[in-house]
Amino acid sequence: MKVTILTPEAQLYEGYAKAIILPGLDGQFEILDRHAPLISALDNGTVNLTDEKGQKHLFPIVNGFVEVLRNEVNILVQKK
Is the pTM of this model over 0.90? Predict the structure, then answer.
């Protein structure tokens, strides 16, 4: 799935991922390839992304939103 992580200041990540673990308001949740459409608020925590090569990327965030649509994930956040 294609993933973009944006802050008001910069683009933190653009590429493809196998899995993303996000800090939701009611706890962590995972997005995998071909996930159902979703819009959700995000809480303080860390976005944990595993890219197609299996490498992990960690992005500390304050809060934000995630949108999943047609195998594309857009994450809009405030960076810590």
Answer: yes
